[in-house]
Write a structure and sequence with these properties.
It is found in: Nucleus. It contains 7 helices and 10 strands. The chain has 234 residues and is an alpha+beta fold. The chain has 2 domains: 73 residues, Arc Repressor Mutant, subunit A (Orthogonal Bundle); 100 residues, Orthogonal Bundle (Arc Repressor Mutant, subunit A). The strands form 4 sheets. The chain has a 3-stranded antiparallel beta sheet. It has a 3-stranded antiparallel beta sheet with strand order 6-8-7. The chain has a two-stranded antiparallel sheet with strand order 4-5. β4 and β5 form a beta hairpin. The longest helix has 18 residues. The two termini are 37 Å apart.
Length: 234
């Protein structure tokens, strides 16, 4: 699904009472970002009980749906049924029903790691193709997901990223192409845990992050935009 939601399809709407129409138009205008109930009341000027009643009616008519906002699950958000939540709301592909899908992340990490161990050297495309053809998952994994998982394995020192030489173990891969192999020491299990399995894909400092740089993945844990990630700023 697109992180910006999908465009609404035209359909014939039922005749709505004035308050419901007002509320529905507001919710529809927010598209894939949805809107919090408190903001609905502010923007429409409708009293609480009127908003509550209208929301129930619109849901019963299958015009709107409630969605989980990963940044504040206590807040009730609604959007039109034509849209899917933007990643800013849903957390993107690593979240399911508003919760970090730890099981999916761990299985995907295992699959990526096993492929590299089997073939000694692999590219992101190799791993993605193998996982797609394996049928391990009911839904298709994207190339970006594989890239983020491989990046997390590099940060955990389970894999290392390097360029192909085209010789020996690298003979299957075009010289100069980015690829991955087992880390020379095989990683350090003592430093690895559930937090280390979370990709850094949504970290705003990702482009500045290097293993030995000012911003680097270490053992200090911080929360960034709903993610829990290992990061240390030296």
């Amino acid at each position: 699904m697109s992180s910006n939601g999908k465009l609404p399809q035209k359909r014939k709407l039922p005749q709505l009472p004035e308050n419901e129409q007002k509320l529905y138009n507001l919710i529809l205008s927010k598209e894939s970002m949805g809107i919090w109930t408190a903001d609905m009341k502010k923007e429409t000027g409708l009293p609480n009980n009127t908003v509550t009643k209208a929301l129930k009616s619109l849901q019963a008519k299958n015009l709107i749906k409630d969605v989980v906002n990963i940044h504040n699950k206590a807040k009730k958000f609604y959007m039109a049924v034509e849209f899917e939540p933007a990643k800013e709301i849903s957390g993107g592909t690593w979240y399911s029903d508003g919760n970090l899908d730890v099981e999916f992340i761990n299985i995907l990490r295992d699959q990526c790691r096993m492929y590299v161990e089997r073939f000694k050297v692999a590219t992101i495309e190799n791993v993605w193709q193998s996982i797609r053809d394996s049928g391990v998952f009911n839904t298709e994994c994207s190339m970006q997901q594989i890239k983020e998982i491989m990046g997390s394995l590099v940060l955990d020192k389970e894999l290392e990223e390097l360029n192909s030489t085209g010789i020996g173990d690298f003979s299957r891969i075009q010289p100069g192409k980015k690829c991955y192999k087992r880390y020379k020491d095989g990683g350090n299990p003592k430093e690895q845990g559930i937090l280390s399995s979370i990709p850094c894909g949504v970290c705003p400092r990702l482009t500045d992050c290097t293993p030995d740089g000012i911003i680097s993945p270490k053992l200090v844990f911080i929360s960034i935009n709903g993610w829990t990630s290992r990061c240390q700023v030296s």
